[in-house]
Every structure is written in C-alpha cells, then in structure tokens.
Amino acid sequence: MAATPSPRCDRTPAWAALQAHFDAAGRGFDLREAFAADAGRATAFAQEAPYVFADLSKNLLDARTEQLLLQLARECGLEAKRDAMFAGEHINATEDRAVMHWLLRCPPGAASAAAVPAELAQVHETLGAMLAYAEKVRADHTITDVVNIGIGGSDLGPQMAVQALAEFAAPGKHFHFVSNVDGHELDAVLEDLAPEHTLFLIASKTFTTAETMANAQSAKRWYAQSGGNDIAGHFAALTTNVEAARAFGIETTFGFWDWVGGRYSMWSAIGLPIALAIGAEGFRAFLAGAHAMDEHFRTAPLASNLPVRLGLLDVWYRNFHRFTSRSIAPYHAALRRLPAYLQQLEMESNGKQVDLAGQRLPYGTSPVLWGEPGTNGQHAYFQMLHQGTDVVPLEFIAVHEPGHTLEGHHAKLLANCIAQAQALMVGKQGDAAGPPQGGAAPSGGSEPHAVGERGGQIAGGHRNFPGNRPSSFFVLERLTPEALGAFIAMHEHRVFVSGALWGINSFDQWGVELGKVLAKDVEPRLASGDIAGLDQSTAALVRRLGRMV
Length: 549
Ligand code: F6P
Prior knowledge:
Layout: H1 13-26, H2 31-37, H3 41-44, E1 46-49, E2 52-55, H4 63-75, H5 78-86, H6 117-139, E3 145-149, H7 156-164, E4 174-178, H8 183-190, E5 198-203, H9 210-225, H10 231-234, E6 235-239, H11 242-248, E7 252-255, H12 272-299, H13 306-320, E8 325-331, H14 338-350, E9 368-371, H15 382-387, E10 394-399, H16 409-426, H17 450-454, E11 471-476, H18 481-502, H19 513-528, H20 536-546
Parallel strand pairs: 3-4, 3-5, 5-6, 6-7, 8-9, 8-10, 10-11
Antiparallel strand pairs: 1-2, 2-11
C-alpha cells in the first residue's frame, strides 16, 4: 500500500497502549468474568452486516481493547488504504498493479466504481459473454460433465462455491475439479467420462502454471485418443493470457485482468463453473451479495464495520496474545472446502515477513488456518482445542435454515455448534457438577503452553476443562448465492485489514516461486541421475526416487 505511506503499526502510540492494556488486562482476561460483569456484552459484540450476523462476544477482548484497536487502525491509515484500493490505485506495489476484485461485483453505475468506469464496462461486457455461454452450456443436455482444470485460486474458490451452492445447481451436470499434477487425480476423473459429454475448462490466470498445463495437455490427449474431434466445442479457457490459450488450441476464451489476484478471482471468468452450476441469475446474485459486503466495508464506520472488527481482532490475537493459528468450523457439510479456500486467501495474502519497503518485520503476520466441517472435527481434534496446551481461536459458522428436509438433523447440528462454543468458553472443573460461574480462576489460556509452564496438579485432572477459549460465531440465514458472496467478501476484506495494519503487500505471492524453479531443475535429474551441485539430502532423494521414474 505504497500509495499511502503510514507508520509501522508497532511504532504507533496505539500499539504501545495496546501492549500496556494487554499486560494489565488482556493476558489474564476471563470471558466468564467479562460476561458476569456486563449484561450487555453479547449485544455490544454482536455485529450485523449484509447476509451475515457475527457474535464476537466470546473473544478475549473488552470495549477498551476495541477502542485501542480502532485507534491503531486510524494511526495506520486504514481508511486511506481502503479508499486507495477502491480508487484503483496500484496498492500491489511489488507487481505495480491495482487491486480491484471488488469491481467484478459492481453493478453498472455503482458509486464505488466512479474512478474506473472503463474497467467497469469491460467487466460487464465479459460477464455478459460468460453468462450467455454458461446458459448455452446449461441448456445443452449432451454436456453432462464439466471438468475444471486449475490450481490455487483457479480451483479453490470455484470448487468451494460449487459445492456450497449445490442445492441451487441444475440437475444433470456433474462438476469435477482437477488441480494436482499427481496423475492419480486426473486419471480417476477421466475414467468415468465420455469425450462427447464432457466440457473441459482450463482455468489459469497466467496460462503457464506447470500443474495446470500438464493436466490440460493430458486432458487434450485423452480427448483425442477417446475419439473426440471438436476441441473448440469441448474446451474453454479462463485466463488473462488469451494468446497462450489460443496457442494451446482453445477458441472459446473468457478473459480477466491483472488487477484480479488469483485467490480473489472467482468473481471473474474463473467463476464460470459456478455460473454453469447455478445459472446466470444465481451468479449475479452471488456477485450482488459480495457487492453488498463491499459497500458495508467501504462505507460503514470502523467501529461497526464487520471486516474491520474481524481484522483488528486478528491483529490482537496474533501480535498480543501471540496465537499462531485459527480454526474454521463450518457447521454445514456443503462448506467442506471453505477451510482450504480460506487457507489460500489468508496465508498466501498475509504470509509475509517484510513490509512494503522490503524491511523485515519484527512481529507475526498470517496465522495458520485449518479446519473441518462440524461435527466431524469434534470427534477428531476438538480434544486439543478444549484441553490442549495451546489456545486456538475458533470460528463457528452456522446456517439457520437447512437445505434438506431430513427430520431432526438440523437441530442436532445447531445444538452441537452452539454447545461447542459454550463449552470452550465456560469450561468445567473436573470435580464440579456444572460449569463454573463468574469469578472462576483465569485459565491463563492467553499464553502458549500455559498449563505446562505452571505445572502442578490441576483440580479435576483429566476431566478439567479450562474454558476461556475464544471463538467467533457467524450465522447465515440460508446458504444462498447472496449469502455466500457476502460471507466470502467479508473474509477478503478482513484479510485486507490485518494486512494493511501489518504494512505488508497482501496481493503478491513471491514465496511460491522458489519451489517452482527448483522443481524444474529436479525433474530432469530424476531421469538423468545427475546430482551435481545438489545438497546431500536432495541428492540422496533424487537417487532414491529417480530409480522409479
Ligand atoms: O503458485 C501460486 C499461484 O500463483 C496462486 O497465486 C494462483 O492462484 C495459482 O498459483 C494458480 O495460478 P494460475 O491461475 O496463473 O494458474
């Protein structure tokens, strides 16, 4: 966010005040005491936003914390940075690019697009063409299978959304997502396909990504070898590199622009699988939901702005409580790929060690994100969340109205979701019959390894639940295209907020490059056995695995 210089967050007065507040009241903060002392806490930390309700009250913060975090946001120039993004400034400084995924969601004439009318016109031209194509394919009953070949942002977003919105999908079309260069994946998909009934979408912003190119070539070969003779009719490309797609032999291409980051691209042509699944109207609803959240983020005061409150909480947890991970618990099976999607969104955006000027940062940035749908996680790793030595903030996602009619299931699901958040917070002393009331001893959960460091006997031993474990609780009324769009846009903006405060470029990803370069060097060595210049361990692995290739 080079366009808007601002002081480094840890050099602001607000940071020092937050550290003092943490030392005085944050480290030993106890949620049970906080609720006992303030009958209005649940309301004060509830936030309504378009299509999303958030209960943030079970987090380790009080009004003073939020006040100081908002001060930090102001001292770091958050509003100016946000406005720079919406003005189309080149805030992706290392790649000299604007960051305008939000523009993909703007309706014609949107006030937020005032600075970039030409780009908005291009967006709508491409969107119109893509949606017309989607409707044509939806009406073509000879196409029964759609195979999206892409990786990272060209896979995770569309895959997550197609699964999430399956309830709204047209019957008669099956969607497959192939991302890994591991041939097992493509092989398993191709096994059941017939070329005349299959449409391949080659999704790649750059159209150079090694995995995608290898899978696309193999798909093309399979298509020809299986008797297919209409590449133009059975392959389409979604890319900013239309020339490379044409050189590959694809005539149907839908483009987008360098100001759309890969992990922010499912609103562009990369979203074609979503449009094929839920139709033009559904896709427009998906965009409209995201736009509603964009407007909330762009215009709501910081104190009642959901992405801002979440991003500030993320900074509080990462830099003061020093939590290193966050777990996502979607209590809706259709959101099973959400954790994987959010991993790329947040960890590729904010997994950075230098500021915009390339100076090494002395504070932590992106946490590790992980998770599984509830209730499955409860029977796997929730043990660690309840009684482990590290505190991991959780994010529960509940959907009020189910998309099925099976009796009794939804109440059980919601009960589990609510009860887990409750259990994490209230805890239970091993010998006591019920949960501790206000005034219970703080768990010391804000410190990693707090239990082990203290040592000694814990009352109730193995049956003691320390409680005071933080969580946020999101509610969507229904998992509709609008709600999903808004919910995802909320996450995009929250990542923007923490990245802006940390002073990093959330929109590049240089960290993925080295491995790509080295893989190109290693591949021929597996065949040749040449180990010259390799470190000892790499050489030994090349020798061992080379024999098998
Ligand atoms: O290697 C990382 C990355 O560049 C991601 O940022 C991106 O989403 C993914 O690869 C795929 O890139 P492309 O869409 O250009 O194939």
